Amino acid sequence: MTVFALSTVVLAGVAAGIVGYLTGMASLVSYPALVMLGVPPVTANATNTVGLLGSALGSAVKGAPTFLPRSNRRSVIVQSIAGAIGGLIGACLLLVGGDGTFAVVVPWLVLASALMILASPRLRDLQHGEEWPRWLYGLVIMLVFVYGGYFGAGSALMYLTVTMIATSAELSTTVYLKTLVIAAANLSSSVWFICAGRVAWWAAIALLVGSMIGGWFGPVIAQRIPDRVLRWIIGIAGIILACYLWYSA
């Protein structure tokens, strides 16, 4: 593999790590880069999942002192388990059926999630401060990551949307928790992809290194952005992702 290709993937990883932390849309940067370099779509999906574990590691370590004390650790564990189960199921479905099944409906799901994250304060008000039952929240999170393990695009945005509506957590804390839960989901998916031999390792390692660097800077940048502005950044990025998915479908 050429130096140009490796450098491209590393730089895409840095950008994906930052974008992924702030908006949950790392794949919007990294996946097209892999495909552009000639990696087949299903292999690119698997390689992308493995490589973006670096982003989760960098963000988790850097943000832990600030955000973990604000979090319900039991809830984090439950969400991570649900995410891991969902990610494993989704990965199995991907390798069995390919990634074409959701191609038509995915842009609509992403657009709906983007609009709901923008409207999340009002949606919370309609619930009069009541949170969803834990079993319901856990089930929905698992379903989100079944989709995430299968298709990937927009799953982090869907997690943010569900969490902002179902719980009373602050957006900045939710953005950090998203990193932990997605790491659990991606880890279980990655194990399956690795065992199935569907990972392009040269690209996965380059993406891992780059995304770890980007992921480290994600919490630093996020702490300087007010929640309202961050919510709009996430929502607009979601709309852009939906348009991209419509265009590429």
UniProtKB/TrEMBL annotation:
GO cellular component, one term: plasma membrane
Protein location: Cell membrane
InterPro entries on file: TM_pro_TauE-like, TSUP
Keyword entries, A-Z: Cell membrane, Membrane, Transmembrane, Transmembrane helix, Transport
UniProt superkingdom: Bacteria
Transmembrane segments: 76-96, 103-123, 135-162, 174-194, 200-222, 229-247
Signal peptide: none
Recorded topology in the membrane: Multi-pass membrane protein
Keyword ATP-binding: no
Keyword Magnesium applies: no
Family to which the UniProt record says this protein belongs: Belongs to the 4-toluene sulfonate uptake permease (TSUP) (TC 2.A.102) family.
Protein's name in the database: Probable membrane transporter protein
Native source organism of the sequence: Propionibacterium ruminifibrarum
